[in-house]
Design a protein that fits this description.
By secondary structure, the protein is α/β, with parallel strands linked by helices. The chain contains 18 helices and 12 strands.
Length: about 425
């Protein structure tokens, strides 16, 4: 029988052996298993909880397991981590159930017939020492972030605030819903969702935004299916508010998938004007089109485009060009906890790709128009570094100050970083640039 724990286990093994992304794999596996809302939530919490605490769990398990963890079969290693997470960090699961079900998983998934006995022995030993387990002295192990990432955040923020960010990365963020104000109001949508058992409350500082909990399957909610809301973090919506698109504008979203900023721009424009949503992958064009139809946004059109190569018929056409570029994604570790374990070496070439996209996107901005640069990372070399390099090469653009709602004091620079531990958002950066000639 497929259970929440078996789905979580398969996702963890797929992440380790195949390099799968946990959120995408879980979504497909939960649907294929037919898990109800409660079991789907448990499978997600178990998988994410292990990934968020993997280095800490291994720190404890290594002292209790005679066989080095790296020599165990991946399913056995994942079963031990699942069991240890439930015993140490997930208080709502009874200890006996956590151990017995881990043993059952080992019997089912391990090739070695003695694996179940090993799992049983290690987890029972851990249970006996539950209140005496040591606490790691280093931030890297304590918060399960590789040392290079701890060093980068500490250099930027200092040790104390870096620790607050690491802790926030391991939290459970609510789902952020942007209300389709062409169809409903925040108050009406909140009441409709509450009637279906969804906890919905207003965002503390972003108008037209609700924070949701206990959603179950979002796609099955009638209010989602009829386009009364879409999912987008507050920081991403904030960037579009800073760009301030107006009714009748022409907007190019150069790296648009899955379409959130295109939707936000279209709503800000009252669905009057033109939004050209582009992506390099053809299948993502259909994803954006489906979202626009669901939301009832007729001003959005799509096109396949490599954002590094501006087509001649797009030159100087647009009042606003949005360049939400590919990045390291280190601002969304809360939602994609396995990002932290990816090899940092391939990230070194990202600023060059980002600069190429920004240079190309700039050619599509009309004189007097706006260029919005955005990432979901917290590394300066991908954020301020790319923008300042662009300004050195493009003297007819300048940073422009903006006003946005929320607890932000430094928008006068024309650049803003949103931080999970400060603002409760994704880690997100954006800059507003104005073409002067």
């Amino acid at each position: 029988m497929v259970t929440a724990r078996s789905v979580a286990l398969e996702a963890l093994v797929a992440c380790e052996k195949q390099g799968a992304w946990s959120d995408g794999y879980l979504k497909k596996a939960i649907r294929a298993a037919g898990l109800d809302a409660r079991d789907a939530a448990l499978a997600t919490r178990l998988c994410f909880g292990v990934l968020q605490n993997r280095m800490l769990l291994d720190f404890w398990l290594s002292d209790l397991c005679l066989t080095p963890l790296e020599k165990l079969e991946p399913p056995v290693r994942a079963v031990l981590r699942l069991g240890a997470y439930q015993l140490q960090l997930l208080s709502r699961v009874p200890s006996h159930a956590a151990v017995s079900q881990a043993v059952d998983l080992a019997r089912k998934y391990a090739r070695n017939p003695r694996a179940a006995g090993l799992v049983n022995g290690v987890l029972r030993n851990l249970l006996r020492q539950k209140d005496r387990l040591p606490s790691p002295s280093d931030l890297s192990t304590r918060y399960s972030h590789p040392q290079w990432l701890v060093d980068a955040f500490t250099e930027r923020l200092g040790a104390e605030e870096a620790e607050a960010l690491l802790a926030a990365d391991n939290g459970e963020p609510p789902t952020c819903a942007q209300v389709n104000t062409l169809k409903t109001t925040p108050e009406a949508l909140s009441a409709a969702l509450a009637a279906r058992g969804v906890e919905a409350g207003p965002h503390p500082w972003l108008p037209g935004c609700l924070l949701l909990r206990r959603t179950g399957s979002l796609e099955e909610l009638p209010e989602f299916q009829t386009g009364h809301f879409y999912i987008q973090d507050a920081a991403a919506r904030l960037s579009v508010l800073a760009a301030a698109p107006q009714p009748g504008w022409r907007v190019l979203d150069a790296c648009a998938a899955p379409g959130g900023k295109s939707f936000a721009a279209a709503l800000a424009m009252g669905d009057r004007g033109e939004v050209l949503s582009c992506d390099i992958h053809p299948h993502k064009q259909q994803l954006i089109q489906a979202g626009a139809r669901r939301l009832g946004l007729s001003c959005i059109h799509t096109e396949v485009l490599d954002a590094r190569m501006c087509k001649d018929d797009l030159l100087g056409r647009f009042d606003l060009v949005i360049a939400d570029v590919p990045c390291s994604g280190l601002g969304i570790i809360r939602k994609k906890p396995d990002i932290r374990y990816k090899d940092p070496k391939p990230l070194e070439n990202l600023p060059k790709i980002q600069a190429d996209i920004l240079d190309s996107a700039a050619r599509c901005v009309r004189p007097g128009g706006v260029l919005l640069y955005a990432t979901c990372t917290l590394l300066e070399r991908e954020n301020e570094g790319v923008v300042l390099g662009f300004l050195d090469r493009n003297k007819h653009f300048t940073l422009e100050r903006f006003q946005v709602p929320g607890p932000f004091a430094d928008t006068g620079r024309g650049m803003l970083t949103c931080w999970p531990h400060r603002h409760g958002t994704d880690g997100f950066f954006f800059a507003k640039l104005r073409r002067t000639l």
